[in-house]
Fold:
Amino acid sequence: MKNKVNVCVLGCGRAGMIHARNYAGRVRGCVLAALCDPSEENLLAASEETGVKKLYRDWRDVMKDPDIGAVIVVTPTQFHHDIVIAAAEAGKHVFCEKPMASTEAECDDMIEACRRNNVKLQLGFMRRFDRSFRRGRQMLDEGLAGKPSLIKSNTYGPSEPKEWMYDVRRNYGPIGEVNSHDFDTLRWYAGSEVRMIHAIGSNFRSPEKKQEYPEYYDTCTVMLEFENGILGVITGAQYVQYGYDARTEILGTNGIIKIGSQRAEAAEAVTADRVIRADSMDSWRTLFIEAYQAEAQAFIDCILNDTEPPVTGTDGKMALVLVHEGLRSILEHRPIYLNNGLPEDNTE
Ligand SMILES: NC(=O)c1ccc[n+]([C@@H]2O[C@H](COP(=O)([O-])OP(=O)(O)OC[C@H]3O[C@@H](n4cnc5c(N)ncnc54)[C@H](O)[C@@H]3O)[C@@H](O)[C@H]2O)c1
Structure:
């Protein structure tokens, strides 16, 4: 068996470059052998930064390259389905960023193509590799808080929404943009699927968009009930300006586990005017920098050791269902009942 995997990163944008930097030198057992992006500017900038010389403009050509053993799919979400299917059929292992695809049916196709062609499929929920989130999981397993009863998780992002984000029927709004990670975290910690989801949302920070996009919301709260009885609350917001804020709390029968902090560093200044000053976390790119590296290492290890990926296509699909059903709940102003995490009409 080969002891190194040749990797190609497809999509050299914001998230793609995090992966490219990791595969270019911070991950054992692989070589960043090629890059692919139709944007000449992004491709050349990525090549210059990583030193990778084999460059593709069209992902179809990557599939014909016998030297590439694995692809890292970090293109806009609408392309994930076609690329993952083609990669599986070309016998290449796949890491795919979240959201996995646009529909649950596409997720099913992708899972089935990877299974049929015997290639690995790992999904990009990097919080599962974050040291604090992993320690929280370990504390839960050790029973430090007793039996879990209520899991609360928030993600608030600082940036002003891009124009395309206001159309929530196509792009989901914060429930998809920022909370898909919270859905995965709650499923992971609860160890169960969702049976009820009820979400509400409202637009507080972009009043000038209310007329053109009456359904747009920048703040939401989601109540969940899991099949095993555990309760969940997720809150989400965009354009909060003060920084990137991702924290989770597991309330147990006799204790609580708190994960994450708003602080960027464990340093603070107390000034003569009796004010405490500390830096707040600016971005997911900073907060999860080590988690992305550990995630990439886990992907290469599962290929080299022929083990199950730690985050699967099913995890990607189940989080997508919760994004879809959560948005439906917001737009229809009602709770949605699921059958073991799936819409009622998808469970036979
Ligand atoms: N895990 C996370 O926390 C996280 C964070 C950010 C983004 N993402 C996901 O990563 C994906 C990319 O998001 P982004 O923010 O990096 O977007 P981006 O717009 O910054 O980058 C996308 C890149 O893909 C390229 N591209 C477009 N079409 C392509 C194609 N057909 N083939 C190859 N490349 C193509 C673009 O030119 C661009 O360079 C999305 O699915 C997004 O949801 C995940």
User: Anything to note?
Assistant: Residues 10-16, 36-39, 42, 59, 74-77, 79, 97-99, 124, 126, 284 surround nicotinamide-adenine-dinucleotide (CB under 6 Å). The mean pLDDT is 95. Residues 313-332 form the longest helix (20 residues).
